[in-house]
Amino acid sequence: LSLPDALPICTSIPDAWKELREAGATARWLLVQAAAREWNLPADRLRTASGEVIAPDGRKLTYAALARSAASIALPDRPVPLKTPDRFHIIGKPTPVVDAHAIATGRSRFGIDEYAANALVAVIARCPYLDGTLASYDDTQARKVAGVVDVVVMPGPKPGEPLDGPLATGVAVLAENTWAALQGRDRLVLEWKQGPWAQESSGALTGAANALLDGRDAGIAVRSDGDFAKARKQARLVVEARYEMPFLAHATMEPPAALVEIGQDSARLVASLQSPGGASETIARLTGLPRSAIEIRMTRAGGGFGRRLKNDYVAEAVLVAKAAGKPVKLMWTREDDLGHDFYRPFGVHAMTATLDRRKRITGWSHRCAATPRTYRDAGMKDRPSYTGCLEPDDFPAGLVANLDKTFFAVTSGMPRGWWRAPLHTFHAFAVQSFIDEIAVATRQDAVALRLGLLGEPRKLPYQGHGGPTFDTGRLANVLTRCAERIGWGTRRTDGHGLGIACHFTFGGYTAHAFEVSVEGSDLRIHRAVCVVDVGRVVNPLGVEAQMMGGTIDGISTALHLAITLKDGQVQQRNFPDYPLLRMAQAPRSVEVVLVESTEEPCGAGEMGVPSAAPALANAVYAATTVRVRKLPLMPQLMRML
User: Fold this and answer.
1) Residue pair 358/443 in contact by the 8 Å Cβ criterion
2) Contact assessment for residue 375 and residue 389, using Cβ atoms and an 8 Å cutoff
3) Rounded to the nearest 10 degrees, how much is the dihedral formed by the CA atoms of 306, 307, 310, 315?
4) pLDDT of 485 above 60
5) Cα–Cα distance list, 19 to 24, 80, 562 (Å)
6) Band of the pLDDT at 10, cuts 50, 70, 90?
7) Rounded to an integer, what distance in angstroms lies between the CA atom of residue 483 and that of residue 365?
8) Strand partners, 348
9) At 2, is the pLDDT very low, low, confident or very high (cuts 50, 70, 90)?
10) Percent of the chain with pLDDT over 90
11) In CA terms, which of 137, 172, 519, 524 is 20 to 30 Å from 312?
């Protein structure tokens, strides 16, 4: 299995839907043929159920009993007909996760739980400066810690080269146990040399982004329909706003870890991974071993969200194990994790809409100044620099006659990677918040405005992931149902505000709505509604769980999370300054509505995130008349109230 770095989406359902059904149908055909031979009966008189082949007289043979003889039968010349939906017994039915009890009781094993009897534990002190280097070090005191075995210097990447190995220069401490390794690392005396990004800061990046948007540089044309400049000149009303998105860390519950054993002729890796093929390639490149001699063992992962598509921690473990000449269990702390990540890009979105005398949107401009996702990513060297920051075919492309999308690259030394629902979380906040601003400026209903833009149900060309088409009717349907569920249009007299947003993400259609109030310094979320259309639902329990988790993730991120920079260093160290949502701040429940559909299924892992933040910000505005245009929301809201 290998998931290309350029495609970090949950694609297992759409990718395998057809192939796995064909494989299952063929296997069932072979088993029936084997049973027909066993009983000397025509195959068309036999049926299957619950892992058994059943004869007309009630005789049964299990699949296990028939497996050996079925394997000796030649495959059919033609594809075996697939079950029609009316015969589905598993697809569409709620199916619990097999190991849910083990996870809930702490018995499930994750990558960080794996050990080998003769392995040393390694932790690394990494340079805190972007592309910085090691000026000097003294490991005298570290080596005096009981249990410390060795100290190894690990070179980092050269400035400008692809980030396909360790993210930073470091000094590794190897010990007999984790505690000794951490104590040894604390006693290292290190002097770091700042790299070329010593002056980088969050404030400077914001200034640079706005300067590009205000300047005369034409930028990179992403999409241009009609004549936006003419539409602006002829407009009866022009609405403008800017939205700022911060860098984000993945902050997976299980920090990176890797157990590596390197022999003379083989190697073994046990880790939580999203790209096992990439891990195999990394080990082969660093050891010279053929990939056929490399064993990859995947465990459950304590969160991935794109972080484990990168194998920098695997590369570190391999380099340390080679230097030590022994198996190594590499451990990361939360501080390591937040300070050395592949962060979601930073950027500023400048939005402009032109309207005629009937309050109809005649033109739309979306200009984005951001740190390109393609930075130092060998797998994306041939992709446009706006990839991951601005999508040519996303809303409202094809819905507005005069459309302009332009990208400006902001220079930064921060490593960048895919984050959950990557591109869509980055720009949906700006687009769907701006729709509400237009509605307020023109005194229109925000839902009616969106439905008017979507128009009659039709399929528009969509070249991004989830295409080849975008169905306006399906997005309108989830929006309408979400509005009905939250009670949209009902006048509130209790100080509560309603907000709504919708988005097309990776082939799925989602709408979020929130009911909120602000009481002093507390934002209370009284209701959270999520309506989703992912095509035919394979497992309703799985989709519901993904929507609940995605919604909570979206709320958490929108309210509190940002990675900031000062003097070329990441400022956040642990959860006190990167505060995930607490239970008391979360809604009591997320009301999930699954749309019944006969369309081909799409993955559901990303759908619950993008429209959550704008719906929440729109609800806050409805409750307070305070418009937050910079995330995270709570610091801005408290400053503006």
Assistant:
1) no
2) no
3) -160
4) yes
5) 9, 12, 41
6) low
7) 27
8) 244, 369
9) very low
10) 94
11) 137
Among candidate residues 406, 398, 395, the one with its CA nearest the CA of residue 365: 406
Convert the pLDDT of each residue in 160-219 to its tens digit.
999 999 999 999 999 999 999 999 999 999 999 999 999 999 999 999 999 999 999 999
Residue at 304: amino acid letter: G
Tokens at 115, concatenated: 């050990």
Any idea what the Cα angle at residue 107 is, between residues 106 and 111, rounded to 5°? Answer: 90
Distances (CA, A) of 64 to 53, 60, 192, 476, 502: 11, 12, 62, 48, 47
Residue 102 has which token pair?
């083990």
Contact 150, 324 (CB under 8 A): yes
Strand intervals (E) in 246-371: 257-262, 267-271, 294-298, 328-331, 347-355, 361-370
Q: What percent of the chain has pLDDT over 70?
A: 98
3-state DSSP assignment of residue 146: coil
Tokens of 406: 């332009």
Backbone phi, psi, residue 193, to 5°: -105, 125
Strand 148-154 versus strand 170-175 pairing type: antiparallel
pLDDT of residue 12: 81
Give the position of tokens 């995930």: 580
Q: Are strands 469-471 and 459-461 parallel, antiparallel or unpaired?
A: antiparallel
**Angle CA(79)–CA(82)–CA(86) in degrees, nearest 5?**
165
Exposed, middle or buried, 584 (CB in 10 Å: 0-12/13-18/19+)? Answer: exposed
Strand partners, 565: 570
CA dihedral 12, 13, 17, 19 (to 10 degrees): 0
Beta strands in 324-385 (DSSP E): 328-331, 347-355, 361-370
Peptide bond into 468 cis (omega under 30): yes
Contacts of 131 (CB under 8 A, 6+ apart): 156, 157, 159, 195, 196, 197, 413
10 Å Cβ neighbour count for 133? 16
**Cα–Cα distance for residue pair 483/486, rounded to 1 Å:** 5
CA–CA dist 528, 532 (Å, integer): 13
Query: What is the rounded distance in angstroms from the CA atom of residue 504 to the CA atom of residue 262?
Result: 45
Tokens of 244: 């700022």
Q: How far is CA 244 from CA 351, 385, 409, 459, in A?
A: 11, 19, 15, 31
Token reading at 168 = 């930073």
Amino acid occupying residue 374: T
Identify the CA nearest to 119 among candidates 176, 60, 199, 61. Answer: 176
CB atoms within 10 A of CB 437: 20
Q: What three-state secondary structure class fits 121?
A: strand
Question: Which pair of structure tokens corresponds to residue 471?
Answer: 């169905």
Q: Name beta bridge partners: 498.
A: 515
Cβ-contact 259, 321 below 8 angstroms: no
The amino acid occupying position 437 is E
What are the structure tokens assigned to 26, written together? 């063929």
**How many Å apart are CA 375 and CA 384, to the nearest integer?**
11
Query: DSSP labels for 479-528?
Result: HHHHHHHHTTTPPP-SS-EEEEEEEEETTEEEEEEEEEEEETTEEEEEEE
Q: What are phi and psi of 224, to 5 degrees?
A: -145, 115
**Ordered alpha helix ranges (H), 237-295:** 276-287
Among candidates 590, 618, 637, which has minimal Cα distance to 497? 618
**How many whole angstroms separate alpha carbon 489 and alpha carbon 414?**
44
Residue-averaged pLDDT of the chain: 95
